[in-house]
Design goal:
Elements lengths: L1 H58 L3 H85 L1
Helix pairs in contact: 1-2
């Protein structure tokens, strides 16, 4: 019985660890979603800007305007590269935190299974004791009846 109490205490600690891991995972997921949204916004902005450049180019652009457009597109491409890198890092952090949560959940479940097995063993032991007592009682009753 003491073993179960100890395991139950460990389960409680594992539940707290699982909850903390779930919170960290959710924060990482939100950060990843934010990064991904920012990346997509930047991609749309770049595409819109290139469409505008194409439209302006069809109407005629001065060399200086074209150079300015080109330089701005290069800066957008650099920003996109940084945003993609940040998004990839955020994705990796999320995946690590998710794995941490899955590991914490598995640890808690393993201990819960140990508790269930221990409880089942205790019930089986109690049943054997009761059966032994019943058998002993029946034997004594039989002996008493036989001797009379």
């Amino acid at each position: 019985m003491a073993n179960i109490k100890q395991l139950e205490m460990i389960v409680k600690l594992r539940e707290e660890a699982e909850t903390k891991a779930a919170q960290l995972m959710e924060q990482a997921h939100q950060a990843f979603a934010d990064q991904e949204q920012q990346l997509n916004t930047l991609r749309r902005y770049r595409n819109d800007y290139l469409q505008k450049l194409t439209q302006q180019g069809g109407e005629g652009l001065s060399g200086q305007s074209f150079t300015q457009y080109q330089q701005f597109v290069m800066r957008l491409d650099e920003a996109l590269g940084r945003a993609e890198q940040s998004t990839n890092i955020a994705r990796q952090v999320y995946q690590q935190r998710r794995q941490g949560w899955l590991d914490a959940r598995a640890e808690k479940r393993a201990i819960e299974v140990l508790i269930e097995r221990e409880q089942a063993q205790q019930v089986a032991l109690q049943n054997r004791r009761e059966q032994h007592q019943l058998d002993e009682f029946a034997s004594r009753s039989f002996i008493r009846r036989s001797s009379h």
